[in-house]
Amino acid sequence: MTMTTGISSIGTKKNSINRAKVSSTRRTRRVRAALSSSGSKGSNFVVRASSSSSSPSDDENNSLGIKDTIIVGGGVSGLSTAFTMKSKNASCDIMVTEIRDRVGGNVTSKNDGQYIWEEGPNSYQPGDAVLKLACDAGMKEDIVLANPDSDRYVLWDGELRALPKDIPTAVLGDFLTWPGKIRAGLGAVGIRMPKEEGKEETVKEFVSRNLGEEAFQRLIEPFCSGVYAGDPAMLSAEAATGRVSVLENKGPWPGLFPGALKAQYEGAKKKKENPRDPRLPVIEGQTVGSFKGGLQTLPEGLAKQLGEGIVKLQWKLIKTEKTEDGLFSLTYETPEGEKKVKAKSVVFTQPAYVVADTVRSIAPEAAKSFEKFYYPPVASVTVAYKRDAFKLDGRSALPEGGLTGFGQLHPRTQKVRTLGTIYSSYLWADDGRCPKDEFMILNYIGGARDVEIQKLNEDELVQAVHADALKTILKPDTPLPKKVGVRMWSKAIPQFNLGHWKLLDEAKELLKKEKCSEEDGLFLGGNYVAGVAFGRCVEYGVDQASDVLNFLDKQRRTV
Ligand SMILES: Cc1cc2nc3c(=O)[nH]c(=O)nc-3n(C[C@H](O)[C@H](O)[C@H](O)COP(=O)(O)OP(=O)(O)OC[C@H]3O[C@@H](n4cnc5c(N)ncnc54)[C@H](O)[C@@H]3O)c2cc1C
Ligand SMILES: C=Cc1c2[nH]c(c1C)Cc1[nH]c(c(CCC(=O)O)c1C)Cc1[nH]c(c(C)c1CCC(=O)O)Cc1[nH]c(c(C)c1C=C)C2
After folding, report:
1. Which stretch of DSSP H or E encloses residue 338?
2. pLDDT score recorded for residue 40
3. Which residues, including other chains, have CB under 8 Å from residue 544's CB and lie 6 or more apart?
4. Phi, psi of 122 (to 5 degrees)
5. Looking at the DSSP assignment, which residues form a beta bridge with residue 381?
6. Residue 462 pLDDT > 90
7. Weakest mean pLDDT among 11-25, 58-72, 142-156, 238-252
8. What is the pTM of this model?
């Protein structure tokens, strides 16, 4: 089993690097020269194989000169920022440093010649930010979109029920009982208890109050598994559901429904005012996206565009310091030994618990705040069965057998340990990810309410998901599946629990006290800041590129 124990703890005391002392006049001259290299904006980003501004003598001294920006972390967040910065200003001197020997971070697509499978995220919501980035990076042809009719199923009372796609199906279907529908309907139009003044509600409190207990149990509780692998009694409605929680008070009168109508109206107006980039593929219904060969095609494509000189693999950040000139000095362990790099700005996109170690030397109090973000363990278990192994229970099958749909979720009340199962062979049927006579599924197991999952070994995990599949989708006596790939993420997804935004503000405030705020050139990114969705990380990363370029521009003009 591939075991990802999060990112190993970073030592800060180990380094004793001899830094050449630079006289203050020389230092000022170097800073000026470097600042002026920010260059003019607007030049086009040219694809190139390699680019680095470091001189051989710099390398000899274990130093790479002064960068405009160092982006720490080669996941989708960091690469989106890096690629956008270079696209907007080709002369901007940046570097992306990644501790692993590959880019992508959580995004982990595997290919053994027979199967292609995902060990981290399985798909993304095809919002314009991801699609645009892919088009800008020359990967439009690599985008693959799943069938928009793919149902999401929720297990309830032994039956897999399709999530209603619209209000008529919600009203007429059997997803909720009639009392449940009436309670949800009344609540949605505003006939419900108002929120207690000043209280931050959990997702469970927010949904139960607005839509009733049944809608919470059947609809939202599994959704919390399917997005956060989280506990709805701990997740913050405000932080975890973002735009949904604000709907309650957005409309002409209180309630989620009037709020949703207003949001829809505003969205349509905005769309009219900002016509869509014509290069972007048309998106139908509730589809999800991937790339040919898997999600990792995107980060790999972005890194290739940036070039080897910019993306440094197996570079472990071990220390962050600030120089007297207000620069950041980062110390790395690299395959070529210890290196020190200075930069005018840094973007930290590594997980919060790694940022804690990274900033401990310059902001010990802030480090304590970063340690508090919680990432529970989740295992991804991809297996393949013969196509005729599945029972359909009235559902349609593909002509060659197997299941149709996006996948299924199992509310914790239904006594199935696996959180949910993705029907990979249906979603990416045209991408040749599995032998034709087999059907591949991706199971996620563990999460905030099942941290004991970490004690299971690879075979036990396969047995656990197989036992659960027998309860829901497999014909009785189906033999154990072919094991395709198993990965334990011991720190998987940051939980946007109660107090999430307050904790982030506190961490930023403590950094600011040490002159490490955005105004000083230290930018925080990554999924615990942006939101956990792949698409949201891209969107935030792209927006952050402008913030960093603005900082550099402002700094250049003030020196
Ligand atoms: C099991 C799982 C399933 C998921 N499923 C979905 C899904 O289906 N759809 C969806 O939208 N989202 C999903 N997500 C969430 C999504 O994948 C992530 O939120 C997103 O990929 C995070 O990207 P990131 O760049 O912010 O962080 P990361 O991917 O964590 O990238 C951070 C990078 O920093 C590097 N790093 C760490 N320490 C250092 C250091 N000291 N020096 C240098 N580099 C360092 C790491 O190696 C990593 O590459 C899933 C996540 C997991 C774990
Ligand atoms: C069971 C575990 C998980 C599954 N996916 C994730 C986990 C933890 C992670 C995840 N899934 C989605 C997102 C992005 C959310 C967004 O805002 O874009 C993340 C971080 C997408 C998603 N997956 C499901 C739903 C309902 C959503 C929201 C958007 C959409 O409808 O596409 C359902 C779902 N997730 C998983 C399964 C098995 C599943 C089944 C229906 C796995």
Report:
1. strand 337-348
2. 32
3. 81, 347, 523, 525
4. -105, -25
5. 443, 486
6. yes
7. 11-25
8. 0.90
Q: Whose CA is nearest to atom 5 of ligand 1?
A: 121
Ligand nearest to the CA of 120: 1
- Distance between CA 437 and CA 418 in Å, rounded? 25
Dist CA 513 CA 365 (whole Å): 10
Residue nearest to atom 42 of ligand 2 (CA): 226
User: Quick check: 124 and 287 in contact, CB under 8 A?
Assistant: no
Q: Tell me which residue has its CA closest to atom 35 in ligand 2.
A: 226
Atom of ligand 2 nearest to the CA of 122: 5
Q: What is the mean pLDDT of residues 394-418?
A: 92
What are the φ and ψ backbone dihedral angles of 386, each rounded to 5 degrees? -65, 145
Q: Which residues contact 177 (CB under 8 A, 6 or more apart)?
A: 214
Contact (CB, 8 A) for 288 and 406: yes
CB of 227 within 6 A of ligand 2: the answer is yes
Q: What angle do CA 60, 66, 67 make, to 5 degrees?
A: 115
Taking domain 167-273, whether its CATH number is 1.10.3110.10 is answered by yes
Residues of 256-278 as b/e, b for ≥16 C-beta within 10 angstroms?
Answer: bbbbbeebeeeeeeeeeeeeeee
Q: Say which residues have a Cβ less than 8 Å from residue 14's Cβ, sequence separation at least 6.
A: 318
How many angstroms does the Cα of residue 107 sit away from the middle of ligand 1?
6
Distance CA 493, CA 509 (A): 24
- Ligand 2 atom nearest 406 alpha carbon: 41
Q: Taking the domains of the chain in order of start, what are their residue ranges?
A: 167-273
* pLDDT, average across residues 385-401: 89
